[in-house]
Design brief:
globular, disordered N terminus, mainly alpha, 19 helices, Questin_oxidase-like, 538 residues
């Protein structure tokens, strides 16, 4: 096989169909709605040309590029970037231009040998086997739905817990170890999770296969949160008790202990995710378990749990946004003209949390027509939250409670509206829905054309949250049951406030050139890039 040629194993007697692996993308989660008077920014349902270009560049990326740049800590973000701007309404020309800027990617290369059922475990954690794992998972997703693949590889005991034999029954492993696929999914600063979830949200089996392969070659650092019994219990899914009636609403939570999102990180673990897991991993696990038990206390039936799960997902998403937005505003460097300290690591918590809507919540507006089993979704959410807490602690961001009240006062009168040319931010009143919609239109238009691939991904997440909760009014005691200081001030404008600060941060200090952001090239933090990039990756 020549360097840069197809990654598929042609020895199987048939080439895997790229048409089936990369069909035309489906529509993603809804974004913030804009009134007719405002130029539409999300026309993906009708822009077939853009969908076809996205399909083509995803195929090209699959065939010609490796998953990592230089080494496995720098991920190839091309697929994430293209799907995100497509979801924001990018034209076919813009997608072409954005993809063309990725001229620094490592060419695809052949693995030392193919991955089969018999050697699946042996090569886990080895980056040079990425191509072989892509081919292995692609064969599976060709014959199974994306949801079936996600369940099979991330929740079955055979792919997570050490077995007397390998996942499919063959013997002869050189070294017995836990496959730990679900743990690996959350490694690499959540990139395998993000990549795989994009595949499910947009109906792209090939992208899911790539996400599975990325997980397979990552380290399994999150094992502390996923003991073996978690997976054996998943095989004993309880029958639903449909005859009972939920006894309280989704936010009628009973707090018996501390609030997860009120944690104040110690300085000891700054920039050290691995050290954080070793030092406080058991405590984080206990805290998250307590959080789950508080939410599910008194649940009488599956319908009751489903209702509470809506509140649980909501709390995790709002908490991550608060950590990034309020925490970043608190640590901003006003002398440098920064509206927010845009922490690179905490940003990924916001970017990734959009996929909780697709993977966990039952909703008519969610693209995925079917869901993971209820118990699987609880495990997924619990693990995601534990990783989020650990990442936040490892950043050492705040030694005191986050000043939510001060944040709201400071961002109340104006929100940032950015001109299309990418000039300095212009403050405008946000006193009615039309002005707010114009602000969102400007935010989305800036994000969609910016060269930093993380920016449109994060703004898409915030726009999706605004679509779901943007009109929510402040209600003391509603969020975090009042256990997070000043949480009664929170309302649906949180997301536009944070999005506006981020756009202001980037527009004032960067340009909308087509260059790939400097950190991915190993050149360090750019003048207008994300803050606090140093540190080890989870």
């Amino acid at each position: 096989m020549e360097r840069g040629s197809s990654l598929d194993n042609e020895d199987d007697g048939q080439a895997l169909s790229l048409d089936k692996l990369y069909p035309l993308p489906s529509k993603g989660v809804p974004l913030v709605l804009l009134p007719p008077a405002v130029t539409p920014v999300n026309p993906t349902s009708s822009d077939t040309a853009a969908a076809r270009v996205l399909q083509r560049v995803l195929r090209h990326n699959r065939e010609h590029h490796h998953a990592y740049i230089k080494n496995k800590w720098f991920h190839n973000h091309a697929a994430h970037h293209m799907v995100a701007i497509f979801a924001l309404g990018a034209s076919s020309q813009l997608i072409e231009r954005a993809y063309g800027a990725y001229d620094n990617l490592t060419p695809a290369y052949e693995s030392p040998e193919s991955i089969t059922d018999s050697n699946f475990v042996e090569h886990l954690g080895k980056e040079r086997f990425y191509a072989a794992y892509v081919a292995y998972f692609s064969r599976y997703v060709m014959d199974h739905s994306p949801l079936e693949a996600f369940q099979h590889f991330f929740f079955s005991p055979a792919y997570n817990v050490r077995q007397p034999c390998n996942p499919c029954g063959a013997t002869g492993q050189k070294k017995a170890k836990d496959p730990a696929m679900l743990s690996r999914l959350f490694s690499g600063l959540l990139h395998p999770f993000i990549h795989a979830a994009y595949g499910i949200e947009f109906g792209l089996p090939g992208q899911l296969a790539e996400g599975l392969a990325q997980a397979a070659v990552q380290r399994s650092e999150q094992n502390i949160f996923l003991p073996a019994h978690v997976f054996t219990e998943l095989t004993n899914e309880l029958e639903p008790k449909s005859g009972l009636v939920p006894d309280r609403d989704s936010h009628g939570r009973a707090y018996s202990g501390r609030c997860v999102f009120a944690v104040t990180p110690p300085k000891k673990y700054v920039h050290q995710y691995s050290a954080t897991l070793k030092g406080v991993g058991p405590a984080v696990k206990a805290l998250v378990r307590e959080w789950e038990e508080d939410w599910l206390q008194g649940a009488l039936c599956d319908a009751d749990v489903e209702m509470r799960l809506v509140g649980m997902v909501e709390e995790v998403i709002w908490g991550n946004v608060i950590w990034f937005g309020v925490g970043g505003w608190t640590l901003r460097d006003e002398n440098a003209g920064k509206a927010i300290d845009a922490d690179f690591y905490v940003m990924h918590l916001v970017t990734s949390s959009i996929f909780l809507l697709t993977l966990i919540l039952p909703s008519a507006s969610t693209p995925s027509p079917t869901l993971l089993l209820l118990r699987q979704r609880l495990v997924l959410l619990r693990t995601y939250l534990a990783v989020s807490v650990s990442v936040y602690i490892s950043r050492g961001r705040a030694q005191t409670p986050l000043p939510i009240e001060e944040f709201y006062v400071a961002t109340q009168a104006h929100v940032v509206r950015v001109n299309r040319a990418g000039g300095v931010g212009i403050s405008i009143p946000a006193r009615d829905e039309h002005e707010l919609a114009k602000t969102w239109e400007s935010i989305l238009s800036t994000a969609i054309t910016h060269s930093d691939d993380h920016l449109p991904k994060m703004i898409r997440a915030l726009a999706a949250f605004a679509a779901r909760w943007g009109k929510r009014r402040a209600s003391p005691g509603y969020y975090f049951a009042g256990h997070l200081p000043h949480s009664g001030r929170l309302d649906g404008t949180l997301f536009v406030r944070v999005a506006a600060l981020v756009i202001d941060r980037f527009v004032r200090t960067t340009t909308t050139t087509s260059a790939v952001m400097s950190w991915a090239l190993g050149e360090g933090e750019g003048e207008g890039g994300w803050d606090n990039i140093s540190g080890d990756l989870p």
